Amino acid sequence: MAITKSSIPPKKIMLPPGVYTPVISLYKATKEQEIDLDAMYKHCQYLVKGGQHGLVYQGTNGEAVLLSREEKKEILKTARKAVTDLGVPNYPIVAGISGQSTNESIQLAQDAHEAGASFALLLPPSFWAKSVTEDALLGFYTDVADESPLPVVVYNFPGVTSGIDLNSDNLTTLASHPNIVAVKLTCGNVGKAIRLTSLFTPSQFSVYGGSSDFLFPTLEGGGVGCVTGMGNVFPRATARVYDLWVEGKKDEARRLQEVVAHAEWACKKSLALTKFGAGWFVGGKLGLGDEKTFWPRRPYLPPGEGLREWTKGVMGVLVEEEEKIEEKTFPKGK
């Protein structure tokens, strides 16, 4: 029996395909750990020049739940200024708008739009998980998407939402909303991705993997990219897997995918290791020599010495690949 393809119309604005970094938040080396906007400006430009196709702020890697509303707005304004100063003012910036209430998420979407974001990323509510029925879940996304001035990307990550996991039926329903344009599957469920890509074209509803260690299979299965914490550390190599695949160089893409998958294992362990890796491999290049800039915000702790050494070895397999790839340049106004 043939699969019945969706007949929903293409969305007016779609998240451009490619590899996106969920950008880490960087802090000043003080007890209060204020946001270091200068450091984040430098890191933003480094990621864009590293070939990332877009950036995500205030997601899980950005420690969104630890940031104030005002901090979120200032970070987004800084990112938009950083890409504009590079000469790419329309570069895609996705903002996390996840709140525990419908009202909060709508307000965060409005804030993000005013601060210069292009798209919104939304987790399901999870404070009282037993009360998040299917009707409540679908109603939440519909209500926020109705009011959001930004196109909404559904963010499915059961690990940070008390186990709440949108299934392919839920996502198929949400895909029909004119302002819901894509999903990020950090659940890592490739079968779910295939079910969705078999029903929708990328112009109707785009599917992104939630990490770079299964980017190649995601693309082969009809997905259009991924959002990966590894981009914070090795933006060129992670983006290159996608670029090679698009160029039809699939053998090269697969080979690089294998190395990327081994390096990303450290990111799977904890956000603290992702941030340490960024500090170790990138911090010096940006003139950010204080390791505390890359520490998680309290009460969370930096990794101990054993895990630091382990991370250097695991992530280090990508150093050679990263150095082979040239940075992108952006002539002013292009």
Q: What topology emerges from the helices and strands here?
A:
Layout: E1 18-22, H1 37-49, E2 54-57, H2 69-86, E3 93-96, H3 102-115, E4 119-122, H4 134-147, E5 152-156, H5 168-175, E6 180-185, H6 190-197, E7 206-209, H7 215-220, E8 225-227, H8 235-246, H9 250-269, H10 271-281, H11 305-315, H12 319-324
Parallel strand pairs: 1-2, 1-8, 2-3, 3-4, 4-5, 5-6, 6-7, 7-8
Helix pairs in contact: 1-2, 2-3, 3-4, 8-9, 9-10, 9-11, 10-11
Question: What does it look like?
Answer:
This protein has 334 residues and is an alpha/beta fold. The chain has one domain: TIM Barrel. The protein has helices spanning 37-49, 69-86, 102-115, 134-147, 168-175, 190-197, 215-220, 235-246, 250-269, 271-281, 305-315, 319-324; strands at 18-22, 54-57, 93-96, 119-122, 152-156, 180-185, 206-209, 225-227. An eight-stranded parallel beta barrel has the order 1-2-3-4-5-6-7-8, surrounded by six helices. Strand 7 (206-209), helix 7 and strand 8 (225-227) form a beta-alpha-beta unit. The longest helix has 20 residues, at 250-269. The chain is globular. The mean pLDDT is 96.
Describe the structure concisely.
The model has no long low-confidence stretch (mean pLDDT 96). An eight-stranded parallel beta barrel has the order 1-2-3-4-5-6-7-8, surrounded by six helices.
Q: Which fold name is given in CATH as the topology?
A: TIM Barrel
The CATH superfamily turns out to be Aldolase class I
Integer count of domains: 1
CATH architecture: Alpha-Beta Barrel
Calculate the mean pLDDT score and round it. Answer: 96
Share in β-strands: 5-15%
Helical residues, percent: 40-55%
**What gyration radius follows from the Cα positions, in whole Å?**
19 Å
* Biggest sheet character: 8 strands, parallel, barrel
Residue windows where pLDDT falls under 50 for at least 5 positions? none
Along the chain, the helix and strand elements come as EHEHEHEHEHEHEHEHHHHH
Q: What is the topology, as strand order, of the major beta sheet? A: 1-2-3-4-5-6-7-8
Global geometry: globular
Protein name: Dihydrodipicolinate synthase
Pfam families: DHDPS (PF00701)
InterPro entries: Aldolase_TIM (IPR013785), DapA-like (IPR002220)
Organism: Melanomma pulvis-pyrius CBS 109.77
